[in-house]
Amino acid sequence: MAGSSLGNIFRITTWGESHGAALGVVIDGCPAGLSLGLSDIQAYLDRRKPGQTKISTPRKEDDAAEILSGTFEGRTTGTPISILVRNTSQRSGDYGEIADCYRPGHADYTFDAKYGFRDYRGGGRSSGRETIGRVAAGAVAARLLDECGIRLTAYTKSIGPISVNMDKFDRQAILTTPTCMPDTEASVQAESYLADCMRSYDSAGGVIECVISGVPAGLGDPVFEKLDAALAKAVMSIGAVKAVEIGDGVEAASRRGSENNDPFRVRDGEIVKTSNHAGGILGGISDGSDIILRAHIKPTPSIFSSQKTVNRQGEEIDLAIKGRHDPVIVPRAVVVVESMAAITIADALLMGAGARLESLKKIYGR
Amino acid sequence: MAGSSLGNIFRITTWGESHGAALGVVIDGCPAGLSLGLSDIQAYLDRRKPGQTKISTPRKEDDAAEILSGTFEGRTTGTPISILVRNTSQRSGDYGEIADCYRPGHADYTFDAKYGFRDYRGGGRSSGRETIGRVAAGAVAARLLDECGIRLTAYTKSIGPISVNMDKFDRQAILTTPTCMPDTEASVQAESYLADCMRSYDSAGGVIECVISGVPAGLGDPVFEKLDAALAKAVMSIGAVKAVEIGDGVEAASRRGSENNDPFRVRDGEIVKTSNHAGGILGGISDGSDIILRAHIKPTPSIFSSQKTVNRQGEEIDLAIKGRHDPVIVPRAVVVVESMAAITIADALLMGAGARLESLKKIYGR
Amino acid sequence: MAGSSLGNIFRITTWGESHGAALGVVIDGCPAGLSLGLSDIQAYLDRRKPGQTKISTPRKEDDAAEILSGTFEGRTTGTPISILVRNTSQRSGDYGEIADCYRPGHADYTFDAKYGFRDYRGGGRSSGRETIGRVAAGAVAARLLDECGIRLTAYTKSIGPISVNMDKFDRQAILTTPTCMPDTEASVQAESYLADCMRSYDSAGGVIECVISGVPAGLGDPVFEKLDAALAKAVMSIGAVKAVEIGDGVEAASRRGSENNDPFRVRDGEIVKTSNHAGGILGGISDGSDIILRAHIKPTPSIFSSQKTVNRQGEEIDLAIKGRHDPVIVPRAVVVVESMAAITIADALLMGAGARLESLKKIYGR
Amino acid sequence: MAGSSLGNIFRITTWGESHGAALGVVIDGCPAGLSLGLSDIQAYLDRRKPGQTKISTPRKEDDAAEILSGTFEGRTTGTPISILVRNTSQRSGDYGEIADCYRPGHADYTFDAKYGFRDYRGGGRSSGRETIGRVAAGAVAARLLDECGIRLTAYTKSIGPISVNMDKFDRQAILTTPTCMPDTEASVQAESYLADCMRSYDSAGGVIECVISGVPAGLGDPVFEKLDAALAKAVMSIGAVKAVEIGDGVEAASRRGSENNDPFRVRDGEIVKTSNHAGGILGGISDGSDIILRAHIKPTPSIFSSQKTVNRQGEEIDLAIKGRHDPVIVPRAVVVVESMAAITIADALLMGAGARLESLKKIYGR
Q: CB B356 to CB C79 under 8 A?
């Protein structure tokens, strides 16, 4: 319980169900004086909006945000920022038939096991629409980081068997391809793969990568609040994520130390690493290199072919899911991963502000 | 800062440096009435003790624990359990030479960047010895889980290129092989691989898997406190872990939905899954199947061949590390992964106790 | 920062400014299965609504609540309950003149000192309207406590020099007198005293008492999370509260031990205290007697006589406050004190659910 | 449960029982670079040490502290500071007789109600010795505050009916009188009153005041983390405290607004208040004036005259307490109140470091 908040100082609390009246987020602890407007929020929300391409659910939602508190004359005041998005396209009728049964790969059974009953309409709180609050908060975090010279870039790295060719990396393509891949060729192949999935009433997964640049060395804490640990939690808390890697991740485990260590050198008077296997974090603390992470996303569990499952009465049944579902979650999850990373870095920035006596004295003019 | 605590109700706080007077942990929130003795703690600590095999550091430490509070007449009282381990084999002289330089793959540079200076002796707080507190707490958590019918089994899944054959799974071997592999044949091959690494002044990484059985369906929370998110944070917070997978993890991303969904069926009146790609967690909540996770561990950064790096004065130097170091961290980290998983599940058990009004009434007899 | 949340498991987050679009609260961690409707919330909000009597501000607000999430078919689902109240009677014009000056007894100066600027309209986040979120959450907590046999009764104990005669205690009068005093005679005297204050452009303070009955022995924790400590924080966090007492409070300090100790006896097979100087809490843990606390409220700082103060430019000025203000805050704060107490007890109930191994086993059927 | 930690960034965790092996504290989140030695800690601990005067328990304890981690070459490193004090004068035999009975005014009954059993030796975790960890942490917090120009002065304001005459305030007397009163005449009278209490096998309570000067305006947060709310919790969490006042406290409730508001003026280019009824906090945020608080302490519950109570078997008995007990807790609690205030202010200082975007940029050089 009480699991709807994240962060220590930059602290977000999301709420809302897929087919309830609205969804939203409260962002507490954002520093005062940050320029912030509705368009900053809306630009992020639009990146996760459904109904925009052939490979996302045809459910149409405006997902129009309203800022209810925490800003004054275009700047944050230091008090909680409450952001609300009304649900407008509920078609609960679609879900009546599954009110009573446990969809494979979904949280229907586990919600019932935990709470005794559930809001079954569209998955309720376990719906992907829950990420609206995350993305609205991510937009605020990204604004704060931008002021501090920190920028995030997330993109689809692969869908099913189709991977991006990083030599053809095209930042613009992230926002223009329906797959959010930074490689238009790979994107075309992925679309074709997805079309094939849809024809066979099936779905696909994929991998999202996020690069965070401009992070000063020294963010994050030793032990349990390591920056990579906080990132892993934030990213793994996105529904459908089944693995998180930092830097070379899984590959590091089969390497030798001499291959995996990143040498330090001096460039223009700054200490830098000449490689970045570590992904920008050493001992849980940022080292000044780009922070690099990957989220592995399972295929959409809602598929239209028949599946074996059980209903609330404990009877074995065959289930054919109807409704409106994405054949792949990955493209719409790109901005969610970026948002969770931004929120985590923003909190680390604030938590670390008084790490040294000398910075504390500087702030308070003592 | 303040990153040395983990958990909400079952809450641990570790402290101590590699070459300080002692290391320890305070475990707050453990329920009263649990039978707990020093031998329960020591058995866990002995599994991570150095100097036991050819493939671990020759530094000899007794790592003898003392329970200073929180138990009375052999049972926990509900008050904080403080456990202390004195350091006895400090040879700080070994480290004098690196006081001033930044070892590649270590946290020397990042600690300096964060705090302005550091306790350089043996890595200080970023040393592997920091895990002593985690393992002592893990022993307490495992005792609690055991009373609730929950058991954890962690083991080495691979070292460098050598992987366990799961068809030859031998639980006993986990405690008897120097690699903690559950497959004696693979273990012999891994030892040979490690001997080769050592001959070339190099080191190796590997993969640890942990299986948690007997977890009731319904543990963990939706959204940010998903059970898999909490596990990812706990495991990623172990130094040297670079990736965490739940269930099929990385592999799930390249599968189709029809391959990845686990059907529900009824067996002996219980709802069960007939496969377990999900690794025992759906929507962040346990589903009653085994929880399965993997930690990918980087090769030991302390290698004895010469490396390029920089010192505190910003001069480029060649560094040859001396001292006592494990050629592979994996075998000694097995019990650390198991401990972090146990601590996380114990907290989820306590956090979820009042998830339903009816359980709350039951507890308070209302 | 990040100070807008309270509680560990039953955790509330409030947001909103006096003259912003809306105010609200997110209640996370409420157990599933609790019957809860809009009327439960509205009944509490109506008790703090302005414009109802001669002794409250003439500002008229409907304070109509909307439940946006967390309930389904009339019951809580265990997911966050988001409650919203739109502001409808903003007259910011009234406040333009004080945008630039520091009202004595208000938070204008301290907000500027902390954040560099502030939303000055109606006090922004430091306005009494901030308590709307607290009261909405208090209504939910009270519903939960009611199911567990715990009832709260708060009332005005004194206004200025006029105190209630507890021998004439009339529970009904709390809801019918404009002062919320449980003694109609004292209430008439207090109204007369307040009329006098208003004639001299002045204001009054007073004391609120809250009695919580039916609390099982064993709630609260030793050390920092003592139940009285948590109550003290919750109640002192209400703007204008300057002192909090538990049980005999201030009077206990001048007594002797033999006068202050409460003897234990047995009544109908139950261990009870024959007096209750302690106010229902011993060593930070509830003892089964009524919990009794008092909040001392300062006089409304907004007075209409001229006051010496300073403006943002650091110039000394004379200030005559205009606008709509309560001559006394106490009656409208009664339900706020009751709400804060309810929220605190609800959290203690949930935090303590697993205090003993045997209760934990009972919940999970192990 | 899990109630043994306090603070958000400057976070302390205490542990230990009266008659266990040792007591201690872990202080996490203290900034790096603070000069700190054992003598800083010991000086504070010596102020609460028993056996020093006729009016404190004859139990003799050295209370010698050991710093086990977190400092290096005389300075804090930013990692957790673990401090340990061994118990040396346990005489558990004294307590055998009360193992089975519930002492009035003590936590024996409530611990049993909560946990099912208890460590009865000397009150276990509910003993006054629990404050050792608080005071050791308070010493560290006071060191940090001192570097930032913040100083705390706590003293006994009254014992039983004897109050200090503030016109005769003598700071030196706080450390030299056995009562910790800043007025030697009042102290002599209080000693005489206490002698009378002891002759009649009785005990006394009293009031402690704490003044915190040099606090910059802008510390603390609106809403739930108001600085006065945090102080109230910290101080009320000390066993035996029954009321907490800020500024004029209880008296404010019977005043008029025109008497209670503090005018702002300009002195030497600084905005100041010309009176300080508010006690240095407005809207939960420090205003730059002295912060003033008072703790009201109940009389020692351990009295040597016969009392009516009940034993664990539910039988009514007459109890005559033996052992070694203070006739008044107040003088030894003075440093505890000062410590809790210091810890709270230190945390507020760290929490507020990034309240404005401009300070955040300053710290990170952006």
A: no
